[in-house]
Amino acid sequence: GAVVSQHPSRVICKSGTSVKIECRSLDFQATTMFWYRQFPKQSLMLMATSNEGSKATYEQGVEKDKFLINHASLTLSTLTVTSAHPEDSSFYICSAPRQGNEKLFFGSGTQLSVL
Amino acid sequence: ILNVEQSPQSLHVQEGDSTNFTCSFPSSNFYALHWYRWETAKSPEALFVMTLNGDEKKKGRISATLNTKEGYSYLYIKGSQPEDSATYLCAFITTGANNLFFGTGTRLTVIP
Predict the structure, then answer these.
(1) What's the rounded Cα separation, in Å, for the pair A114 and A35?
(2) N or C: which end of chain B has fewer CB within 10 A?
(3) Chain B interface, mutation test: which of A10, A35, A43, most B Cβ atoms within 10 Å?
(4) Contact at CB, A43 and B102, closer than 8 angstroms
(5) Chain CA centroid to CA B102, Å
(6) Are A115 and A47 in contact (CB under 8 A)?
């Protein structure tokens, strides 16, 4: 099946630093990548949708200047949490649809802890 | 934000028992309902994509039904095995949207 590789799986950083999360589609071209966030005991919530070669679309309430998304190639999308603060501590996960397939293919997620 | 509810939140069953859980979603503007299995430290894996009212899909010991008029889907596991232990997520898409609204999941633990 299709594989989406997400790194890092876990990161601990100091408040004020920036963290980059990468998602790569290993065996298919991902023209679209969805970025989700999950707080404890809550559901996966869509943050933004990245499209290769164009600007990302952000959901209401998600600051685009804080969560920078880049989708420069058909196999790589990145999410950068800029000037991270403790309230940004969360689980972040990416997923991509594959052409001709209705299912989503997920990365394995990144647990971000901001001290 | 659309409300997708799953119940129960968690479930413990003995190996060999059959079990089922529920996903409730808004019945208007239905497009599709997804089920995913999410094992700890792994990626969520798609089980089923269901689009038609009355749909019933099966994959091995796991099956799912869909009622779009009343807004619910059931997931059934027959003869549960320890390897079935995972969180089962359902997600809903409305017409005109391209993103999924997820429930909080049902965490299943199968006791050997």
Answers:
(1) 19
(2) C
(3) A43
(4) yes
(5) 10
(6) no
